[in-house]
Amino acid sequence: MLKTHPEKHQQLLRSKGVRIVPMERKHAAGAAEMHLLAFRGFFLAFLGKGFLRQFYRAAAGHKETVGYVALDDGDNVVGACFGLINARRFYRELLRKRWWAFALHSIWPVLRRPAIIPRLLRACKHEGYPPPFSVHPLGALPSTAVRPGSQSTGVAIALMRAACQEFVRRGVHAVYLTTDANSNDMVRGFYKAMGWKFIGYYTTPESRRMCWYVWLDPAVKWAPDTIPSAKE
Ligand SMILES: CC(C)(COP(=O)(O)OP(=O)(O)OC[C@H]1O[C@@H](n2cnc3c(N)ncnc32)[C@H](O)[C@@H]1OP(=O)(O)O)[C@@H](O)C(=O)NCCC(=O)NCCS
Fold first, then answer.
1. Whether pLDDT at 1 is above 50
2. Regarding the domain with residue range 6-216, which homologous superfamily does it belong to in the CATH classification?
3. What local confidence, expressed as pLDDT, does residue 94 receive?
4. Distance CA 171, CA 59 (A)
5. Can you give the pTM of this predicted structure?
6. Mean pLDDT over all residues of the chain?
7. 131 Cα to the center of ligand 1, angstroms
8. Which of 32, 88, 102, 113 could form a disulfide linkage to 52, CB 3.0–4.6 angstroms apart?
9. What's the CA gap between 143 and 129, in Å, rounded?
């Protein structure tokens, strides 16, 4: 059962003049800023705003992505949610068509910390960390972030709802996301309250302990063992 309060949050969003719209290229700078605010310490954030802006410019409106932003009454991005229909196809195309832009924006981070080169090379082949889960197609929702001043007003709920509806519209009825396993109770509680199911832990090559959550379209009749049982 969802522990969120959709009506209360919808009213709050309306009263603040916040609206949810599909992410477009013009929102790339705002989406990059959200990413930096939310994912400090993660690799893409280390690569900096220029790199992220390129990333979101390429991702916005791409056939393999799902993206929404929340805009305030001054059209500023106050939240963003980004998903992938097919991560492999998206990243391959990105590298093939825009490698020069990403290479350019990697120069400064590499000069700052040359030790990131192996990680950067690995990122070129990176397709996320899909869970041990045999549902196909399986979408991914790698980032949802809301500006601190706009949190707890229903922005993330509205963004994620829009994203899940879009996944379904495009034939994807199961989506996964990952988040930090440790010192992250608020975010994990949020996903649970949104109806996402915890399905297990994994550790990144950088020794970061993470966990998987999965969303299954409630309109589909799933076999009872679709989600492997996992203890948090
Ligand atoms: C996590 C995050 C996206 C939530 O965004 P938000 O806009 O504040 O969330 P919403 O306002 O849409 O939803 C909040 C509602 O969810 C529910 N909720 C949130 N956390 C909850 C928890 N721990 N337990 C139960 N319910 C919870 C509540 O109903 C809450 O409403 P309330 O505050 O009025 O009680 C936001 O805190 C954020 O950007 N954090 C930093 C980035 C981040 O960590 N992102 C996730 C990385 S994978």
1. no
2. Gcn5-related N-acetyltransferase (GNAT) (3.40.630.30)
3. 83
4. 19
5. 0.90
6. 88
7. 23
8. 32
9. 13
